[in-house]
Amino acid sequence: MAFQEKQNRFKKQQEKSASASHNGRNPGSIKFSTDTERLQHVNSIRKAPVGAQMKRVIDLLYENRQALTIEQINEACYVDMRANKDVFESMRKNPKIKFDGEKFSYKSKHDIRDRSQLLFLVRKFPEGIAVVDLKDSYPTVMEDLQALKAAREIWLLSNFDSQEDIAYPNDPKVPIKVDDDLKQLFRGIELPRDMIDIERDLQKNGMKPATNTAKRRSAAEMQGISSKPKPKKKKNEITKRTKLTNAHLPELFQNLNNS
């Protein structure tokens, strides 16, 4: 829409200029204060470094998502690649840009355009696909990722190594059933009570702990603060003297019933 507005404005300026010339008016009698300011702005853009001009073009193509000619790019963001060969060659070789010999367009890592194509792509990566590789696919891709997550079509999980989100497919055609024996085995694993032991086990398995308890305790001891783990309090059991206010939860009173 912004590109179309600038194009329309450019056409109106051409029409006004042609009309003034046709009527034989003296161009010097026309007020050019606004136009002079615009020309100064255009001149500053065209004198900017190659990298700065490239960024303007790439931003335009990213937001527009259309294939534009050199003239259309010049009209929209005032970068004249026909006059500046360095900008033209750099844009032509840029890995994020596609040039078909006539028009430039933005080239995302994955060529998808809508939510259905996004879901189809994620399902092709059962081991997961990095969200950072999807962000520039199309303008509303992040909203579509959240919508697919809400619909339980995909999972969005964080990678412990890079702290980046990974999209995983949740294909209903491939249901996953976990045996009760495996569930009991998982729930029966008792973790060490001391964080140092937990961190040591993580390191043995090739994982980097997010904490450093030994260092934290050493610093605390230097400041005279005890950092030893507090003894685990014994869980209070329900006795016959306990007032029964949660009668709707019978499993809480097994000890009472058996006593």
Automatic annotation (TrEMBL):
Residues 1-32, 207-259 are annotated as: Disordered. One of its GO terms (biological process) is transcription initiation at RNA polymerase II promoter. Residues 38-113 form the TFIIE beta domain. One of its GO terms (cellular component) is transcription factor TFIIE complex. Its main location: nucleus. Keywords: DNA-binding, Nucleus, Transcription, Transcription regulation. It is found in: Nucleus. Residues 1-15 have a biased composition (Basic and acidic residues). InterPro entries: TFA2_Winged_2, TFIIE-bsu, TFIIE_bsu_DNA-bd. Residues 16-26 have a biased composition (Polar residues). GO terms for molecular function: DNA binding; TFIIH-class transcription factor complex binding. Recruits TFIIH to the initiation complex and stimulates the RNA polymerase II C-terminal domain kinase and DNA-dependent ATPase activities of TFIIH. Both TFIIH and TFIIE are required for promoter clearance by RNA polymerase. PANTHER family: TRANSCRIPTION INITIATION FACTOR IIE SUBUNIT BETA, TRANSCRIPTION INITIATION FACTOR IIE, BETA SUBUNIT. Belongs to the TFIIE beta subunit family. Tetramer of two alpha and two beta chains. This is Transcription initiation factor IIE subunit beta. It comes from Cajanus cajan (Pigeon pea).
